[in-house]
Design a protein that fits this description.
The complex is a heterodimer of chains A (408) and B (258). Chain A is mainly α and 408 residues long. Chain A has a four-stranded mixed sheet. In chain A, helix 3 links the parallel strand 1 and strand 2. Chain A is elongated and about 100 Å long. Chain A starts with a helix and ends with a helix. Chain B has a single domain, classed as P-loop containing nucleotide triphosphate hydrolases (Rossmann fold), CATH 3.40.50.300. Chain B contains ten helices and ten strands. In chain B, a hairpin with a 2-residue loop joins strand 9 and strand 10. The chains are: A mainly alpha (408), B alpha/beta (258).
Amino acid sequence: MKGSVRIIKKELKRVFGNKRLIFSMYIMPVILMFVIYGFMGKMMGGMQKDIVEHTSQVYVVDAPTGMKETFDACGYSNGADITYISADDFAKQKAELEFQLKESQIDLIVKCDADFYKKFESYASPADAIPSITLCYNSTSNYSSRAYNVFNSVAAPAYKTALQAERFGDLNKLVVFNVNEPELFEYESKKGTQFLSMLLPYMIVLMLYTSAMSITVDAIAGEKERGTMASMLLAPINRSEIVVGKIVSLAILSGLSALCYAVSMIFAIPLMGEGMGEELNLANVFGIIEIIELVVIVLFIDLLFVSILIFVSILAKDSKTASTYAAPIMLVVIAAGIATMFSGQDTHTIVQMAIPVYGNALVIQSICNGGVEFLGFLASVGGLIAGIALFTIFTTKAFNSEKIMFNA
Amino acid sequence: MIEIKDLTKIYKLSNRRKIELKTKDTHKVAANNISLVARPGEIYGLLGPNGAGKTTTLRCVATLLKPTKGNVTVCGFDTVKSGKEVRNKIGFLTNEIKLDPNFTPDYMFDFFGGLHGVDPETLAKRKEILFEKFGINEFKNKKIEEFSTGMKQKAGIVVSLVHDPEVIIFDEPTNGLDIITARVVTDFLKELRDSGKTIIISTHIMSEAEKLCDRIGLIIDGKKVVEGTLPEIIAGEQAEDLEDAFFKVYKRTTQGND
């Protein structure tokens, strides 16, 4: 295996001896990650702040008795600029107001039934009419959507409660029983990890694949294309030594690249959360066991991706063809990552976990959700090792094939 | 010593290749029952037009291709059964096999020296001699991508000889080189021959074969049609020079094929 070690050293030197490559592979992505997430957080935070601080332009048509007073009392009037108009005036301005709603010049029209209050007062049996309110809003406008939601959650319940009090006096008669605040039984560190466990497996497999793809395609198909691979085949070493040397060195390079992405994500996502006013701190989620499990699984996924990509790259005549071979595999990786997002189970079978990529994403998901069964973890790593071994054998066979290596 | 016995190499043609070669045949016989021996202390030249099978023959000797029939031995080792041992005995150079342009000749020399198991002391000595001879010292720490074609070829020669091989295989040794570099290469080949190395080259340049080769094998359409020293071939074909002899043989062979 001396030959493999020399090849590993050479491949590492190719990257680490080139300042431009170090910058583009390992420094640039970190900077971009911080800039993108920071910018996204700022933009999203700014957008939300703008929506919340916006004073809704609301028209209330034919407001029944007590509605205005209730809106003032519950504070709804403070966040909205409300114009109360009669049904007749509305009929005259209907087309204009609806146009303004479409154009986002006003945010909400509240149309109350004619004789709303009378219907309320005269209600005696189920056969009687129940008064209603119709809300008109523009779902494509953020301001209008918020005005609609705030009216439904603040103004309408407040007026309903006021009329219920008027009808029944003691409102507790209607409440019947209360559901108390829940008593929570959960690990403090796992709070709010659902989002993470849904997103992280997908992000990890995708990042590992894209990192491996960008490095491997050129290192294998590019070398074949440039004629530098053949010089290696003339060396007095076994072809399997070349394959192992290539797999290990490229796994190190792409693994480091993925690590840069991951570390910058851990620090950049809270930056986005800060901008949005939410706490998204990945560093608090994992203990030492989870970190070790994650590192092991990520390492083997990386090796699997590199061994698959080396195999498809060696089959290709040039880098361009290799990229076209690698692209459909990326779709499979994305599909496997997305499938775990919606797997909807807390526990998974050993067989599921042993399926390369999909099973590994499930394991990462379980790690995020509070830990993975050891047997499942072993099955997952076992599946990966089997995949790596299989593709190493395929690649060695390809290296021995003169048709593949020399188009003979 | 190189011994080629009844070497036949048949390629299966892909549909694209069939279109390129304008043929409906599913197979192409690149080397057809070739036998030859190249001995230590001589330069054996494979002379023939493009596509005659010279490169295929040399690639079989270099273990890059496996013979369909027949066998090739280098210093007693079979190229199929003992590929690793054969690769340790040979230095193979062709325009299609290049050095990684991201590295310096200095690093490439050490890298391939390591793969061939050359000890550091011997490696340093050989580097000093070969770099001096080919004028690489000045550029040894420059990346190969910055080199001219001639410099790249020189670096390639130097690296292919890092392990002081007993057998040297050169496919079109002066192809693409300027007249000065070509002279350096041919002089060096003569020097290697005089030191007892076995050398086999392929060429389609008659003057090169005349000046350089001790024995010549004419290859046409995958077959070795004539073999001998330069005077033997010229006398045998009653020709004025090698070029004249080649065209006589070529005409006879292709007419015979028709």
